[in-house]
Specification:
Layout: E1 2-5, E2 8-10, E3 12-18, E4 24-31, H1 36-43
Antiparallel strand pairs: 1-2, 3-4
Organism: Orientia tsutsugamushi (strain Ikeda) (Rickettsia tsutsugamushi)
Domain Transposase DDE: 3-63
InterPro entries: Tnp_DDE_dom (IPR025668)
């Protein structure tokens, strides 16, 4: 969160994908009002294996 002026903030989300060794595989920064689902398909493209996340990323498209 970045304070712009008195009473006003810019909020961002940091999306990370790491492997089992703790190495960063993918990084994406979005505005806080952007849906997590809109990021997930592009964000995880080209990666294989297990993907663990919170409920905000769950959709039927991820399983096809």
């Amino acid at each position: 969160m970045v304070k712009v002026s008195y009473g006003s903030f810019l909020c961002f989300k940091l999306h990370l994908i790491i492997n089992n060794k703790g190495e960063i595989m993918s990084v994406k920064i979005t505005k806080s009002n952007k849906s997590d689902l809109s990021v997930s398909s592009v964000f995880s493209k080209g990666l294989s294996g297990k993907l663990f996340s919170d409920k905000a990323y769950i959709s039927k498209e991820l399983f096809h």
